[in-house]
Amino acid sequence: MGKGTLLYAQSGGVTAVINATAGAVIQAARARKVKVLAARNGILGALREDLVDTSKESAAAIRALAHTPGGAFGSCRYKLKSLEQDAAKYARVLEVIKAHDVRWFLYNGGNDSADTALKLSQLAAASGYPLTCVGVPKTVDNDLVVTDCCPGFGSAAKYTAVSVAEAALDVEAMADTSTKVFVYEVMGRHAGWLAAAAGLAGQGKDAAPHIILFPEVAYDEAAFLAKVKTTVARVGHCVVVVSEGIRHADGRFVADAGGGKDAFGHSQLGGVGPLLAATVKDKLGLKVHWTVPDYLQRSARHLASKTDLAHAQAVGKAAVEYALKGLNGVMPAIVRLADKPYRWKVAPAPLSDIANHEKKMPKGFIDASGFGITPACRRYLEPLVRGEAPPPYGPDGLPKYVRLKLSAVPKKLPAFAG
Amino acid sequence: MGKGTLLYAQSGGVTAVINATAGAVIQAARARKVKVLAARNGILGALREDLVDTSKESAAAIRALAHTPGGAFGSCRYKLKSLEQDAAKYARVLEVIKAHDVRWFLYNGGNDSADTALKLSQLAAASGYPLTCVGVPKTVDNDLVVTDCCPGFGSAAKYTAVSVAEAALDVEAMADTSTKVFVYEVMGRHAGWLAAAAGLAGQGKDAAPHIILFPEVAYDEAAFLAKVKTTVARVGHCVVVVSEGIRHADGRFVADAGGGKDAFGHSQLGGVGPLLAATVKDKLGLKVHWTVPDYLQRSARHLASKTDLAHAQAVGKAAVEYALKGLNGVMPAIVRLADKPYRWKVAPAPLSDIANHEKKMPKGFIDASGFGITPACRRYLEPLVRGEAPPPYGPDGLPKYVRLKLSAVPKKLPAFAG
């Protein structure tokens, strides 16, 4: 095998620690004297031959990726279809890969990216080009199968648990004369992992959050309002955590009612959080506040989980090792060895088992009321939010997040006309 | 003067560091062998004779108040009117104060609380009862006059600047194929201090936040949209920070359009953030995300400013010193001695100068475009967000926030019938 280069790209929604994975990939490759190119904006960078030469970045800058949120090379929401439907695009990506002597391709993303990496490995094999493709897990949604958890989730989970705990103290202090119900909307269109993480904020019957609404449980307005009412009567206030993806029994997203158009045809970009808040106000006459942290929950590197950071770096390092060993079409998965004390390792898993699948919360993680988490869920989640890994701060009081040079690799091919 | 006790109470919206002030008050009083009672839920606790004996709390618990957000004794949104209008209530508060041998009353709040403390001191003096009343500043809104800044603001400002910086990295990474415009709504109904703090997130022409909408500047939709459009064209994305209190040129709150009822009479609890997001989507056709952190911004003790924490503790300690010296009707104000290196001290200021006034941003803090902050504003804000003071974390990955015993003081009076 010739010298060859390694191509790395980031895909899908970014996380607080995806750059930590990138940093670990580059460090591991540098240690093996392997050159790393990065595609800008995920697979689009490969299509456009928009590549970055990471060898132009200093060792200090690469180290700083470990504490910098966002996606340093740019990410994308762009999914290639089947090899047949998007034949020209796959062929183009392979052409760019060949032109830059890429022998190893690492795609850092969720299950769509696993699918892309798998297809590309199949195409390369069919065309006789020696390319090893490795998927690298990442998603705050924690919905990849096979792996015990996904890098990015632990930090978003920690952010959620801490923010709910803090806001709950605020609401409790104000409830006598002001806000009685607080609604916190978390990400998770299909799986309630982040909603469940909010459950870490408190233990015991009357500890916040008092109500968690999971996408796995059909939304029942009457049952929800009854629970709010009794909680306020007993505790004095009520903290509600709602997943953006909750649905009615018939499958319709609850949020869609608030996300339509008003009578004038103007967009109503309310999420499910403000919608439930309005319901509580109208039906129960209680003073309510709500929050939608949105991107803050997946970019809050300042509150990253140390465990999550370790996972993110470990899968980056392992991905390079697998690639250089020629383990094609795999992903480094996190394997849990023990809950308490928490022990884990990384092991290769076939991309074909992961691509296009989605892991929901196990039934045993939601309690009988449907509004809370079980001890088994807590046992699973707790190690993932454990430990702090704050970024360094500057004299201006802000974290010292790095901005890379992103030095462009000269193009060798004509522009893609696809 | 007899032995006497000191009564402390918290008022208005809580902050990340108001409990640090409470802890400093109790520690300073304990050092002088003065007993401290706390009223539950602010002045309401005095009206209801609902008092807590802080001597039942351990030294460790009182120390832990320094890193615990919320309001440990409960706060209130409840303003006493004039001495004439609320004569019976003031008389009752004085009766409770006398019954518990209270000689010093410390009210920790904003300008309403300063007003209450001032009126109570006047009433006591008129009735010949020796009571020293001291206001203790607190508000994330930073809108108290005389004092250079308000404890609570620096931490909310740091939270805002860091969160905007982090979310901006997220948006930048996604902008090529996804979100192009991000709208971040901050608190500040009348003054743009927290909106201005977002400006600390970036420096330079194209650094986020690209647009700040202040309550001090009339909202001009056409100018706003034009600026969003040119920013996206030049930078690729646009981060907008909007104060909840922005108004149209005629004085109407912009948020009111989104906070009304829909065609069915249901409440629309959208803030100005989602409203502007919808405007950008409809008028410019750009993909947009928005966040409303709401209470998170004022309860995020995990991201407190070390400077702010020092201020909060200093005003608590000074308030006790002033009270015991008999400095009646004053508030410890923070006096800035120098910007760089930042130096400050605490000095007493008359409550009569502070009560019912509101400090807006100086004209010189908003740049000529109306969408950004000036170097003078940055010079003012930067020291206030400087330094980190993280809470201790437990093995469960969550901050170790304290919950007090709140041991009730036996009532001596019949219930208040007012």
Task: Describe it.
2 copies of one chain form a homodimer. The first copy, chain A, is α/β, with parallel strands linked by helices and 418 residues long. Chain A folds into 2 domains: 5-139 and 301-356, Rossmann fold; 153-299, 3-Layer(aba) Sandwich (Rossmann fold). Chain A contains 13 helices and 11 strands. Chain A has a 5-stranded mixed beta sheet, sandwiched between helices. In chain A, helix 5 links the parallel strand 4 and strand 5. The longest helix of chain A has 22 residues, at 153-174. The mean pLDDT of chain A is 95. Chains A and B meet through helix 6, helix 9, strand 9 and helix 10 of A and helix 6, helix 9, strand 9 and helix 10 of B.
Key features?
Pyrophosphate--fructose 6-phosphate 1-phosphotransferase (chains A, B); alpha/beta; 13 helices; 2 domains; Rossmann fold; four-stranded parallel β-sheet; five-stranded mixed β-sheet; homodimer; 418 residues
Write a brief structural summary.
The first copy, chain A, has 418 residues and is α/β, with parallel strands linked by helices. Chain A folds into two domains: 5-139 and 301-356, Rossmann fold; 153-299, Rossmann fold, CATH 3.40.50.460.
